[in-house]
Amino acid sequence: MSLQQVWEILVVFGTASLQSFGGGNAVLPQIQLDAVHTYGWMTSQQFANAYALAQIAPGPSTLLVSAIGYQAAGLPGALLATVGMIVPAGVLMYVTVHYWFRSRGARWQQAVENGLASIAVGLLLSSAIVIVRSTEHNVLQLVITGVATVIFCATSVNPLWVMAACALLGWMLAI
Amino acid sequence: MSEQTVERPTLWDLARTFNLISLSSFGGGLSAWSHEIVVRRRGWLTETEFLSAATLSRLLPGANQINVAVFVGTRLRGYRGAIAAVLGLVSIPFCIIVLLVVGAQSLESPPLRHAMAGLLAAAIGLTLSMVWRTGRKAIVSAVPLALAAATVAMSAFLRLPLWSTLVVLGPLGIYWAWRQAKPPA
């Protein structure tokens, strides 16, 4: 990997990191433009495949950048892209959180915490609604979601068992 | 201060826990898993603190779940904790993704797709149960209920960008909570 490549990868993902307001999806169009068109690290079909991989693999879907970095420059590229994507935003978060905890108990801090709590609940519910609407959830899936929700709310069974059962059900019923 | 009530995990414990969260989220629902494990099983954050973590994580740039890991790690063990939590969250998935890129085109097989569809349905259920649990703590009267409903309308149905929802509803919520708070002694 040439020094220029190191620089290009760090610039692409470092700037994306600091602009990723609302999560990694916000900068996806920019990253696609850079990876496919500006630097030609991969084809747009490879980009789409990498996106699908990152969606189903465990962990944060922002690790899509690891796949892109791999296409750009092998394993070192994957590491570099991941570090570039995580560190700048992570440092900013750390500084903010550090200050947040130092103000713990202050009236303004309590007001922000409690005042934004109900909005956070609304955002969580929204994320579930958006996923349902964007993936063409069919009736069977809606039923599974409903039953799973009731089980998760009413019992303290390990969610892994429920998830495994639902995956099996999906496979058997070919939903 | 609630510092005394939280046992301080070791760095290794933090990394292991976030690794568990990460691996449990196969098929989706990462945020719901972090709630399940951080709040319900470990008791590292209260429901309200978790909501603060979720909101700060969305306000600042960066992947939400990585930001939540930074929040929890910092809360329990300072910057070392933040690094341990993030490494725990991303290390194994990083390896998995690289292996998949190297090895795989098998994602198109229909049985796998059907199983993933079932998994996704359950992951959404887990998210909804998190809404229920955190909502019971946060939605204590008509004002928070109205704020939550307005958030859903703006964010899920009108698909307005996050910043506009927060600019409109955030000050209302903070003003309401300020009026509720006891003045400092």
Question: How would you portray this structure in words?
Answer:
The complex is a heterodimer of chains A (175) and B (185). Chain A has seven helices and no strands. By secondary structure, chain A is an all-alpha fold. Chain A has helices at 3-19, 28-38, 44-56, 64-102, 107-134, 139-154, 159-173. Chain A is flat and about 55 Å long. Chain B has two domains: 3-138, no CATH class; 141-185. Chain B is 77% helix and 0% strand. Chain B contains seven helices and no strands. The longest helix of chain B is centred in the middle third of the chain and has 40 residues, at 64-103. Chain B starts with 10 loop residues before the first helix and ends in a 5-residue tail after the last helix. The relative contact order of chain B is 0.11. The interface between A and B is large, with 99 and 111 residues.
Keywords:
heterodimer, A: 175 residues, mainly alpha, 7 helices, 79% helix, flat, B: 185 residues
Secondary structure layout plus pairing:
The complex is a heterodimer of chains A (175) and B (185).
Chain A lengths: L2 H17 L8 H11 L5 H13 L7 H39 L4 H28 L4 H16 L4 H15 L2
Chain B lengths: L10 H14 L5 H12 L5 H13 L4 H40 L6 H29 L3 H16 L4 H19 L5
Helix pairs in contact in B: 1-2, 1-4, 2-4, 2-5, 3-4, 3-5, 6-7
